[in-house]
Structure formats: structure tokens, C-alpha cells
């Protein structure tokens, strides 16, 4: 048996094999260069903690990643496509059982949360349309308890109305993350196609300028503009919207939304791959630690259930679960 490494007195023999690069009994050798790249964070933490303490820390990280709430508010005028957007961003069809109710008249009477099917801690809030009898612009944010939400998405279609301007200005004052969505862009494109001199890029640029000018007139607002279709979530600015929101969230919430998003560009897949590598390393190392040292409260990580749960989360992250496959079918 290799000698015990005095630099890591709290580490059981299998961990010393890993962190000293000594040869394991099966003849496999993990080099220090490899360990430096793959387990730099783990090694740094290990130098400051015992295995049970580090395992408990990683369990806390995993629990936070799986349970930390993320609240996204979707606001806008009646008929702008708010509820359809709530469904689209959750990978849910309008006629699915868990879908937000849609229609040509206002369906939302009070703020209502809809959990993301693959990540229930992500709550997409369908807010009542501004300008209705119960939700005037002047006291709208107070009534919907704006402090509850991490992010505001304002949805409009066609013309920018006075109520839209008032809502945008009120949201801007909260200093919350604010994204401006111009929905039904596919309908606008189809309408413009009737013109003899139609040009797709020019039409999109014209609509974007109109939205930016409208926001500027509403109070010199600097919200980003995203042109989307709720029926074509892989086109226009829908993928970029989700990537932008995720990129500007705090770290753990960024991971939650990134893994829940099901638009698979090469860039997005690379980001998901790195996040899942970190997740898998933590799950594996916590499980390993529990097998070596009895860690109070972590027995669940020593069972086959944790491996099945990890596999399930990987499938969900890459859109291989039943719910995701149903949405893209």
C-alpha cells in the first residue's frame, strides 16, 4: 500500500491516490496535471476542510442548485401574447394541461405562477394585463408585489401604447432586470412579405428601431429589445433572449435557467456540457466521500438513487426526457 500522504491527514487512502497521483491497485494512474485541471476547486477546498466537511459543503451546493427559486415576471397589455409567451418559455404548448390559459380577452385576473416542467424551482409569473379595471398603471407594480421577482419581461405586439410606456417606466424605476419583447414577429413578417420590395433583415431592423425609439420616448429607457414568435421559439431572438437572461443572473440562478433552456445551439450545448461536468463531479465526489467516511445526513448520496437522479437531470438538461421530446415532436 502506498505511504500515507502527510499533506492530507484527513483524507482516506482512495482520496490520497487521487490527489497525489499515486498508482491505484488496477494500474491506472491519474497525473497531477490532469488533477490540476479537473479538480482544482476540489483540491483547494480539501486543503481547508476534512472529507466530511467538504462532502457536506458540496451537498449544500447541489441542494442550492436544485432548489434555489427563480421568479420571472411576464407583464404587458391585454392581447400582447403574454400567456402564450409564458407557455413558450416553459416548452409547453397552449393546449397542454399545465399551460397558461390563452385567449383574445384577458384571462389573467391575478398574478399566477407556472413552474417550468423540467425545473420546478423556476416560476414564470403570468401577470394581469396593465390597463384593466383592477390593474391601472399608476399602482400596477405595488399590486403585483414587484419585489417578488428576479426578472421582468415586458411583452408587446404591434403598436407601443400609452399603457406600455407607463409600465416600462415603472419597471425601469425598480432597477430590476428588464427585457423588452416584441411578440408576433412572424405575423408582422408575413404581412410585410406582401410588399414587392420585401427584405427580411430590413424589416426586422425597422421594427427593432421602432421599439427602441418608443422606449426612449417613454423615458430614455435602455432595455434590450427582442423580436420573437411564441410559435417559433428556435427562430428570431427567442434563443438569444433566454441566453441573455441566464447570462445576467447570479451564478446559481444562471445555472438553473441555462440547464432548463431547450434551444440547442453549438454554443449552448458547450455551456451545458461544462455545467453538467461540474455537477457530475460534485455528485460523484460526494458519493465517494460518503462511501469512505460516514457523513451524517448524507446517506442518500450513498445509494443508487442519487445516480438515477443525476441521470434524470442530465437527460432533462439535454432535452432527452419525455416532456422535452413531446414538445419538439
Automatic annotation (TrEMBL):
Gene3D superfamilies: P-loop containing nucleotide triphosphate hydrolases (3.40.50.300). It comes from the Eukaryota. Pfam families: IIGP. Keywords: GTP-binding, Hydrolase, Nucleotide-binding. It comes from Thamnophis sirtalis. InterPro entries: G_IRG_dom (IPR030385), Immunity-related_GTPase-like (IPR007743), IRG (IPR051515), P-loop_NTPase (IPR027417). This is Interferon-inducible GTPase 5-like. PROSITE patterns: G_IRG. GO terms for molecular function: GTP binding; GTPase activity. Residues 68-248 form the IRG-type G domain. GO terms for cellular component: membrane.
Amino acid at each position: 500500500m502506498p505511504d500515507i500522504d502527510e499533506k492530507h491527514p484527513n483524507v482516506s487512502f482512495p482520496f490520497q491516490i487521487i490527489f497525489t497521483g499515486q498508482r491505484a491497485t488496477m494500474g491506472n494512474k491519474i497525473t497531477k496535471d490532469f488533477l490540476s485541471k479537473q479538480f482544482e476547486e476540489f483540491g483547494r477546498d480539501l486543503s481547508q476542510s476534512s472529507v466530511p466537511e467538504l462532502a457536506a459543503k458540496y451537498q449544500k451546493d447541489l441542494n442550492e442548485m436544485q432548489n434555489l427559486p427563480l421568479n420571472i415576471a411576464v407583464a404587458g397589455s391585454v392581447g400582447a401574447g403574454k400567456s402564450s409567451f409564458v407557455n413558450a418559455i416553459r416548452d409547453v404548448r397552449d393546449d397542454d394541461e399545465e399551460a397558461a390559459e390563452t385567449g383574445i380577452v384577458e384571462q389573467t385576473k391575478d398574478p399566477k405562477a407556472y413552474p417550468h416542467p423540467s425545473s420546478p424551482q423556476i416560476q414564470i409569473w403570468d401577470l394581469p394585463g396593465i390597463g384593466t379595471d383592477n390593474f391601472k398603471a399608476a399602482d400596477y407594480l405595488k399590486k403585483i408585489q414587484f419585489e417578488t421577482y428576479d426578472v421582468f419581461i415586458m411583452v408587446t405586439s404591434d403598436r407601443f401604447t400609452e399603457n406600455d410606456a407607463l409600465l416600462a417606466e415603472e419597471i425601469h424605476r425598480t432597477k430590476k432586470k428588464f427585457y423588452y419583447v416584441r411578440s408576433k414577429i412572424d405575423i408582422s413578417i408575413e404581412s410585410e412579405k406582401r410588399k414587392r420590395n420585401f427584405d427580411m433583415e430590413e424589416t426586422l431592423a425597422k421594427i427593432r428601431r421602432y421599439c427602441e425609439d418608443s422606449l426612449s420616448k417613454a423615458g430614455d429607457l435602455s432595455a434590450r429589445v427582442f423580436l420573437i414568435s411564441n410559435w417559433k421559439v428556435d427562430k428570431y431572438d427567442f434563443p438569444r433572449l433566454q441566453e441573455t437572461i441566464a447570462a445576467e443572473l447570479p451564478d446559481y440562478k444562471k445555472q438553473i435557467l441555462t440547464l432548463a433552456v431547450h434551444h440547442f445551439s453549438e454554443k449552448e450545448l458547450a455551456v451545458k456540457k461544462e455545467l453538467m461536468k461540474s455537477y457530475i463531479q460534485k455528485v460523484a465526489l460526494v458519493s465517494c466521500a460518503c462511501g469512505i467516511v460516514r457523513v451524517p445526513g448524507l446517506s442518500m448520496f450513498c445509494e443508487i438513487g442519487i445516480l438515477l437522479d443525476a441521470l434524470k437531470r442530465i437527460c432533462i438538461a439535454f432535452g432527452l426526457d419525455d416532456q422535452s421530446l413531446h414538445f419538439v415532436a
